[in-house]
Amino acid sequence: MHRITEIKIKNFKSCQETFLRLEPFSALVGYNNAGKSNILKFIDALVRGKAQELTSFYDSNQPIEIVALLEGVNEQTLSHLSSAQRESLTPYLEDSKIKIRFLQKNPGTGRNAVEMGVQLPSQNDDIWNNPNGLPQAITTLFPEPTFINSMEDSAEDVSKYKAGNTIGKLIVILQKEIIATKVDEINDALKVIGAKLNHDGKERLKDFDNSINNKIEDFFLGLSLNIDIPTPDITDLFKQGKLKVTEEGNQKKTDFNEMGHGAQRAIQMTLIRHLAEITKDVSKEGKTNLLLIDEPELFLHPPAIELLRSSLKSLSNKGYQVIFTTHSPFMIEQEDIPFTNIVRKNCNGTKVELRLNEAIEKVLNNYDTQARLLFETYNLGQILFSDCVLIAEGDTERHVLPSLIKKITGKTLGELKVALVIANGSQNILGMMKILKEMNIPVKALADLDFAFSNSVHIFKLIEKTDKSIEQCLDVIKEIQPIYNFELQGRYPTKGKGFKAAQIYELLAQQQKADESINTLREHFKAHSIWVWKLGAIEPHLCLEAKETGEWYKFKQNLNDKKIEDVIADHLHIQEFAFWCIQ
Question: Which domain holds residue 202?
């Protein structure tokens, strides 16, 4: 199946200069007014070759330009084009790919307002060709898109037949099935009607003709009138199709547009789901149907949203390219998150951030473990709907931080638009931060004290091994080693003799002579958006005796029932930490 894989837009509405990649099933996420709907609109304009009014121009003195890369335009696809259409496209194909351009220099919908162009994918200049038959070829490859706007009247899409709307598509499929099985029966019935209404029908009704002809002879002798009422064909009958709704316990058939918005949206998406189930392998027709939906989850409850998502994904495997905006994590499965486009807007207009998939590819050679963790993390979808990501090391943070931050700030992480992602160890923190920064997602991290002495901070060049504060802390560790009899590997703590390395760093944090060096290290890492616990780990700050479910549960219960200063001895430090997280 051919499809649009890349698209670049200049000067269309909020899109001053925007680039994004697309899949057969593509989600656009972002806050209201970020420009997600405008992306759907410019895809629609490109495929239709539809000229735009002044309101669509970001700058009325500059042209609108939309450039798209099409992939999968192979021999099978071309075989369904006319010879003129094939000739217009073939010279510009490269590995079954082609670039097309929509250019409109001036506002207005006059004839020839839009210039369509084509070039080789490897051609990176401003030379575009407009061979005969190009607009028709694009229309053949991508028939009229189905565009369902979030604020649009659902009745326009599903209550009455139109060639490009949902009910229209369903009726066409129904029509094909009936013609295949009942065509003779229907034609016989239509012949009976035709015999009575057509001007040459054998059983023509004569009353009107006789009555009117008796009168016309009073004015013009020798003239006669015959009323010809053509017999409708099967297609005409189906075009009169409407959707009626019957509620349980009430046999009255109600017009669709008399239903509430919730019922209308549910019916609309149900029909799209049904379309997914009955659509056969239409990719053989050499066409790709674009389905553009703005917020398909509107008015639907979560189980219905998941059913809808499954239906849309099914369509994306049956000759449809599905592109939609959403505010709902239920519309995006874990496997689709790496290919989801995050849309933002700033003073330069709408921008689409680098997708997780490309961010990981960019750094994969060095950070494949962190990439896998990002794919597998329990709430990865939340990074798509947040302003900031907070990376923490392990289970204690996962269980207690949401309740702790809500207690201090009065808001949940969701309300604060912060996503909590667990790194499963400090060694993964910096790789995950780098991947998220490639996506332009603000990110902070929490780390135990041993993180400051780990190899990863040197690999990422956050601090030198010979840093003065590092050296001073290692000196203190050497001094207390005979007292506690823990193991050292060179100058660094290591596991052995009943100690874990992390526990030795917690002993370091208890030494007053190390306070100044540890504080210096903490400020150094805070400058890199990393909070290092000054007592070595989060547990001592929260008076947690163990990393166990019972401890976490008891702590959260105490937070609910008591004042924070009665639960946490070092509550001022923890309050400072909480507000640092959300700054």
Answer: 166-241
Query: Exposed e or buried b for every residue in 268-295, given b needs 16+ CB within 10 A?
Result: bbbbbbebbeebeebbeebbbbbbbbbb
Q: Which amino acid would we find at residue 556?
A: K
Dihedral of CA 126/132/135/139: which sign? negative
Let me know whether 554 and 508 are in one domain: yes
Write the DSSP string, 189-216: HHHHHHHHHSTT-TT---HHHHHHHHHH
Q: Which of 335, 350, 365 is the last residue of a domain?
A: 350
> 232 and 336: one domain?
no
Q: What is the mean pLDDT of residues 208-223?
A: 65
Burial of 17 (0-12, 13-18, 19+ CB in 10 A): middle
Report in angstroms the alpha-carbon separations of 519 from 201, 414, 476, 513, 536: 101, 31, 15, 11, 12
366/433 same-domain check? yes
Instruction: Single out the residue in 320, 350, 380 at which a domain terminates.
Output: 350
Please, what sign has the CA dihedral across residues 576, 577, 582, 583? positive
| Domain CATH for 111 | 3.40.50.300
> For 316-368, how does the pLDDT look when each residue is reduced to its tens digit (9 = 90+)?
988 889 999 999 989 999 889 989 999 999 999 999 999 988 988 887 666 66
341 Cβ partners below 8 Å, 6+ apart?
Answer: 20, 21, 26, 27, 28, 29, 352, 353, 355
pLDDT tens digit string along 11-50?
A: 999 999 999 999 999 999 998 899 999 999 999 999 989 9
Question: Vertex 429, ends 425 and 435: CA angle to 5°?
Answer: 140
- DSSP letters along 390-406, please? EEE-SHHHHHHHHHHHH
* Angle (nearest 5°) at CA 385 between 380 and 386: 90
H/E element, 33? none
Same domain? For 212 and 66 the reply is: no
113 inside domain: yes
Q: How many folded domains does the chain comprise?
A: 3
User: Strands across the sheet with 3-12, in order?
Assistant: 15-21, 3-12, 64-71, 97-104, 114-119
CB contact at 8 A, 308 and 273: yes
Query: Are both 132 and 190 inside the same structural domain?
Result: no
Signed CA dihedral, 42, 26, 70, 67: sign only: positive
Domain shared by 317 and 187, yes or no: no
| Other C-beta atoms lying within 10 Å of the C-beta of residue 379 | 14
**What would the two tokens of residue 285 be?**
């027709």
Same domain flag for 519 and 374: yes
Count of other CB atoms within 10 angstroms of residue 165: 21
Q: Read off the pLDDT of residues 131-181 as tens digits, 9 standing for 90 and up.
A: 888 888 888 888 778 888 875 555 555 555 566 666 666 666 666 656 666
Q: Closest Cα to residue 44, out of 131, 138, 134?
A: 138
DSSP 8-state code for residue 354: P
